[in-house]
Each structure stands twice: as C-alpha cells, then as structure tokens.
Design a protein that fits this description.
mainly alpha, 8 helices, about 0% strand
C-alpha cells in the first residue's frame, strides 16, 4: 500500500469515527447514552488508528526517529511548552484580537465530564491519539513529502483548528504548528501524542478542580 493510500485510510477512518456516535444515537434512539457511546467509540477508534499507524511505512518526517528515551523526554517537555504556547496565543486573542476567552464547546464538555467522568478517557487519551495520527502523521506527514514543510504544517494546523469549532482559531493553530515542529524534530508521532495527552489532562484537571 502506498503512503497516499495509507494516509487516506487514516483520514477516512478518523472522519468515520467522528460520525459514528451521532449516527448510533439518532437511529438507535439512544440520546441519553450519547457521551458513553462517544467514549467507547473514541477509545476503539484510537486503538484502530494505532493499528493503522503501526502498519504504515515511514513517511518523510519519520526517516530518522529518536530513540525511546528522548521521545519520552521531548514528549514530557512538550507538555510544558504547548501549555505556554496556549497561554501566549490566548493572551493575543484576548488583548489584541479581542476574542473572549470563553469557549462554549469546552465549557459544555467540561460540565458533562463532571457528571460523567468516563469522558476523561475520550478527551485525554483517545482524542489526542486520533488527532495526532490524523493531523500530524497523515496530513502533515503526507503533505510534507509533496509540499514545503512549513506550508504543510500550516495546512495541517488550520484543519486541526477548524475541526474544534470553538472560535479560538489562533490558539489551536499555534498548538498545531508546535506539534508539527515537535513531530518533525523527533520523527515520532508518539512524542506529540504524549505532549497532546498531557496538555489535555492538565487542562481538564485544572478545570474540574476549580
């Protein structure tokens, strides 16, 4: 299977996974179980994308991956750096672009998480795995072999930002660009998975403990 087909399979799988919970709830009349179904589907989806990741051949970014120990170190350091980037981008949005710091999607999700704690699995583990394999490996990694890597990173990061649909385009684009850089730096998608999952976990815990 060519890299193009491999990346296409990852992207289609991800989009399909996003649609499954709504389809199940709508046709199965299971609206009361939407978040439970979402969590289960996301966890299974993350496992499936990890399987596809293991089956794919190395792309242009992954030709010289770091050993395991530096991958873990960079992943943990990336948690701190991505939080700093998020804070700085948020400052620019609020004080220069005059965009409110509140996110209705995030507030709604966190509120539901207080009532249904199992959602933490979806937001801190499953979602980072799926998003990193899709946006960093399949989209950025796929485009990097055809386009200028900076342009590939911008496209991937903008798509990543638009997917979240909460009005904070600059924050998510900045996060996406940093994670593209981190992926390129280490040559391993597991570095960015660690950073992304760690960031989501810290943000979630801070919100839930307010």
């Amino acid at each position: 299977m060519t890299l193009y087909k491999q990346n296409f399979s990852i992207i289609i799988s991800y989009l399909f996974i996003l649609l499954i919970p709504s389809a199940v709830v709508r046709f199965g009349h299971l609206s009361a179980s939407f978040f439970l179904i979402t969590t289960i589907v996301d966890c299974l989806g993350a496992a499936w994308l990890l399987y596809l990741n293991q089956r794919t051949q190395a792309n242009a970014i992954e030709q010289r991956p770091f050993p395991l120990k530096p991958i873990i170190i960079w992943g943990v350091c990336g948690i701190v750096l991505v939080l700093v980037i998020q804070i700085l981008a948020g400052f620019i949005e609020q004080n220069i672009l005059h965009i409110t710091a509140k996110s209705l999607n995030t507030i709604s999700l966190m509120t539901m998480m207080q009532q249904q704690p199992f959602l933490i699995l979806a937001t801190t583990i499953a979602a980072p795995i799926m998003e990193e394999i899709t946006f960093r490996k399949a989209i950025f990694g796929g485009l990097a072999s055809r386009l200028n890597r900076i342009l590939a990173a911008i496209i991937s990061s903008l798509l990543f930002a638009f997917l979240h649909q909460d009005g904070h385009l600059l924050i998510y684009t900045a996060i996406g660009l940093f994670l593209c850089w981190l992926y390129r730096k280490t040559g391993s998608i597991f570095t960015t998975i660690i950073s992304h999952a760690g960031m989501n976990l810290i943000v979630t815990l801070l919100y839930l403990n307010r």
